């Protein structure tokens, strides 16, 4: 917000720059904005740590059934804790990262400390030293990553190429014991296919910080499934991140207005 | 035995004259009267190391969930009343924050290994200081006085075992030493915390929040104040609750039992 459309740009003839907070720019028509001579900047550095943290938080919460557990712990009907109530392990499991940009790399750094086996799929392969530093194995074919991973985490940006990147076919390739985690954009997943996959136990569970739309309509099937956790797009929702994003956005805007090199021009 | 059942008391032991060994699940043995068992000539085993990584993972899960308000966020995401997601709804960052680990045994150390990857500053308090190389490997700084750890930490994580010395280790005084923006995480035993003092501290915002995998008793009575506070998350003692780990625990317990019955040296014997 606000929606950047033709009317708005026409009404602001002196507009020089749109300083976007956050890293995603899929909501902006870059061609159209460019045609008005307006620059666009984002805040890639401020978002990386908190978003990587949320990815880890979702993976751990889903694997260990944290939300369900909380509900049991406080439910008025709980008389004892069942001994055979189990989750799945994160330590030593295989994490497949789809999209190894700044955020993906920080997830890999964190996951490594849990002794996870790390696979990744990316447009380009990372340098050897970068791979070795986190023990990540490149999967040129996404199928290889999907078939081997216990946790699949989506950390791509939303582009025409990544729209519905994960659909029925991809979900079918995943292990039935696997969990899908999305901290990218809702539209990267074919949501209808995801609903079906979760209902039919084609995959074990999903954990989504992003959906399409946000929020989902209140009667959406995703809200009724018990093998899913959804958070309200809180990847950068920390006090520290909000400050950093504001500072980064302002630095970018000032650079444009002062004719200086722009730190994060899109 | 699983959890604390059955209760191993004098009556039970008298009724089982041929009992050779009690194999306890998990690492904690605070629920067993070792002197009593010894006086009946009954050996005790536990499953000490296999629970470590899962418990450390859960400690991290609780810290992240609490800090980022994951459970609240989930409730908002699925609530029938939600029309939009507010822009000013914020949590606090884990990356770069200060973690104080009270009890740097196997589990505490594994938490430190994980927290380091989040670029956390790590302080620890322990009966004894760890070796220099062990400290350097995780960047942990020893706090001989627990007060120093409490005053500097954004997250205080309890990973001690329950002994007479650690009973109510964290009480009113300790909670007041903590920052008002700090979170207490307990993956040890409920009795390590003075629960009444914790309730008061949370109600009066002396500390920001708590995340507990363990309470006393388990479960808490359904009218307990801890269940009503908004700044607490409680999980039902699931530190070691994963398929793989439970399977290995069963295997270890079975091995110990077989050895105990055969009169052979017992793996994981508690002496």
TrEMBL record, chain A:
GO terms for cellular component: cytosol. One of its GO terms (molecular function) is hydroxypyruvate reductase [NAD(P)H] activity. Residues 56-235 form the D-isomer specific 2-hydroxyacid dehydrogenase NAD-binding domain. CDD domains: GDH. The keyword Transcription regulation does not apply. Keywords: Oxidoreductase. InterPro entries: D-isomer_2-hydroxyacid_DH, D-isomer_2_OHA_DH_cat_dom, D-isomer_DH_CS1, D-isomer_DH_NAD-bd, NAD(P)-bd_dom_sf. The keyword Metal-binding does not apply. Residues 3-266 form the D-isomer specific 2-hydroxyacid dehydrogenase catalytic domain. Belongs to the D-isomer specific 2-hydroxyacid dehydrogenase family. PANTHER family: 2-HYDROXYACID DEHYDROGENASE-RELATED (PTHR10996), 2-KETOGLUCONATE REDUCTASE (PTHR10996:SF149). This is Glyoxylate reductase/hydroxypyruvate reductase. It comes from Manacus vitellinus.
TrEMBL record, chain B:
InterPro entries: D-isomer_2-hydroxyacid_DH, D-isomer_2_OHA_DH_cat_dom, D-isomer_DH_NAD-bd, NAD(P)-bd_dom_sf. It comes from the Eukaryota. GO terms for cellular component: cytosol. Residues 60-239 form the D-isomer specific 2-hydroxyacid dehydrogenase NAD-binding domain. GO terms for molecular function: glyoxylate reductase (NADPH) activity; hydroxypyruvate reductase [NAD(P)H] activity; NAD binding. Keywords: Oxidoreductase. The keyword Oxidoreductase applies. The keyword Nucleotide-binding does not apply. Residues 2-270 form the D-isomer specific 2-hydroxyacid dehydrogenase catalytic domain. SUPFAM superfamilies: Formate/glycerate dehydrogenase catalytic domain-like (SSF52283), NAD(P)-binding Rossmann-fold domains (SSF51735). Belongs to the D-isomer specific 2-hydroxyacid dehydrogenase family. This is Glyoxylate reductase/hydroxypyruvate reductase. It comes from Manacus vitellinus.
